[in-house]
Amino acid sequence: MRSYGQYCGLARSLEVVGDRWNLLIVRQLLIGPARYRDLIDGLPGVATNLLADRLRDLESLGVIERKLGSEGNVVEYALTPWGAELRQPIESLIRWSTPLMVRGPEGDAFRPEWLGLAVPALLDTRVKVRPSATVGLDFGDLPLQLRATDSGFEVGPQDGSELDATVRGEPAYILGLAAGALTLSDARAFGVIEIDGDESIVRAVFAA
């Protein structure tokens, strides 16, 4: 393990998760336990041998663990309780990244499930009064739903629940709404967001 040789919490944390791809592996496992093939698919650009090395290192350090999946015959990777405590610093980094995201994807890869971590992280600190509502997120790929409750926000695949409204637009604009970098009025005026259903619910959920 690389060592900075410093008795500092940040230095020692970076010794564990500071290598390239480590925090993105944790991001994927915060979304849910995953097989090796799922991680390859969810981490565009990672080399298979490098992923195997990173998984081995994170497991030996106690950040992740291997276990049998729900089917009982497939090995999945999952975060340990200590590894799961990385959710808060990762969510803080997502919020910190807002100025870096406003320019859009610029050809970078995108996976719909990444919104499941990003949108709640962005909304949780901005929206003080949360309506009880479920809003569909439709950007032409896997349709998602954003559920708002008093306890927070949750994004996942649409489960057949009744939707109060649906927001249609490119992921970058949905992230802009969640971050407060784009108002709903401007998004509609520019034609980058469409809404089906109760617009007042969308305004309340996104504080827009």
TrEMBL record:
Transmembrane segments: none annotated. Coiled coil: none annotated. Keywords: DNA-binding, Transcription, Transcription regulation. It holds the Pfam family HxlR. Residues 8-105 form the HTH hxlR-type domain. This is Winged helix-turn-helix transcriptional regulator. It comes from Antrihabitans spumae.
